[in-house]
Amino acid sequence: MDGSGIHVHPTQDDPVVAGLSEAVGGPVGGRAGGTRWWTPLRVVLLMAAIGCALGLLQKAPCAEDTWGEGDTRYSQMCYSDLPFLYTLRGFAEHTYPYTDDEQTRVRYESMEYPVGISYWAWGTSYVTHWLSGSPPVEDRYERSVGDLQGDPEIQDEGRLYVAVNAVALAALTILAAGLLAGVNRRRPWDAAMFALAPTLALTALINWDLLAVAMVAGALWAWARDKPVLTGVLIGLGTATKLFPLFLLGALLVICLRDKRVRELALVVSSAVAAWVLTNAPAYLASSEQWKVFWSFNSERTADLGSIWLVIDQAGDLGIEAHTINAWSWAFFAVWCVGVFAIGMLAPETPRFTQLGFLIVAGFLLVNKVYSPQYVLWLLPLAVLARPRWRDQLVWQAGEVLYFATVWWYLGGYLEPARGGDAGFYWVAIVVRMLCELYLVVLVTRDVLRPHHDPVEKPPRAQVTTTRSNAVAV
């Protein structure tokens, strides 16, 4: 532990950090002094703020290019959905995502995201209009969408829209880092691996996935504080924003069955369902057809970016249909969940929430028919707490960063062979990403089945050394 005797210090606990600390005098000692201001929590919050700032800086080349349709978004890897959807989903005209107005539906495609993202995207568009001086939008109704996209005034609004979302998402990211630091009071420094993750900076502004990530961080914190109702509410809100928080209920099922906490499980599930229903109700009541778009869009999707299905489909030139992929991917995921359930029930000790949650979400992403670059954020809060070791996190992050780069090269056409043909290097990057993810899966599974390997359960190395020295002295 550190000088306060409360927190596990990374220089005493993590071999990578301990090795790096030699350059500044070695691991912190038992008599090391501290400051009242720079607590571990505040340092982690600062790290998260820096990560968000780097993420905004990474998107700067596209902002300078007014988020145009050119190659900058691929060559500089700074693409974001946000400015395009601002115009293409009607937010520049205050269009509500869940309207059945015929003219609106002819003019704009429906939002293909869950309601939480749709509400947020619509709400931040109003903030953007207000900050832009509330320009009149009536004259925009008579112009084509293509004309609006090329309008310098609306392009400026699009840049501001990204900035508004960047500030709001940064606040949520900092909050998430703080919540993760509080999951295990002894190990607040584990959250630094979330705050400093290169993938956080690279993918934070591609879409609105950080909304669900913040909900997951809150759910992990609430469960650690024995607040089952709040845990369920946050899981429900997260599921209304992205599907993956739903899978956390599987982790809690194992924990509650093992520890005979049926009442807590019932509270979590019931509050999650209530939160999800109440969040979806306004959209469903306004337009059930538009509400269903998210579900139909995903069911009709064929093999898409980043998935093993894309590799199989392109390598074999198979043209696999959507319903075939749906059936097989859900079948594989069901088998995976059964395996995680068995591992959790057979483990010598009750696994941690983050361990089981990580294993379930990782399984979903491995067999899903699409893996957008920002999906790494789904795993990030779970991974850093499930396996809080810098070496292992860096191995996994390396695979994700490689994939992040290659997906933009692939979309930009930079990976196509000079004589034509498939972009085989992109397939390699997909497989490497999956192998790095499986590497982390194997380690977490081992920690569950052999808890003495779990870094969270092991005492810090410095503490072990001190204990042994005292024993010899006695």
UniProtKB/TrEMBL annotation:
Pfam families xref list:
GT87 (PF09594)
Where is this protein localized, as stated in its record?
Cell membrane
Q: Which domain of life is it from?
A: Bacteria
GO molecular function terms attached to this record = hexosyltransferase activity
The protein, known as: Uncharacterized membrane protein
GO CC terms on record?
plasma membrane
Task: Assign the protein's first listed, main location to one coarse class.
Answer: membrane
Instruction: Cite the InterPro entries for this sequence.
Output: GT87, UCP010361
Report the sequence similarity comment from the record.
Answer: Belongs to the glycosyltransferase 87 family.
Membrane disposition: Multi-pass membrane protein
For this protein, the parts annotated as crossing the membrane are: 160-183, 195-223, 229-253, 265-285, 327-346, 353-371, 394-411, 423-444
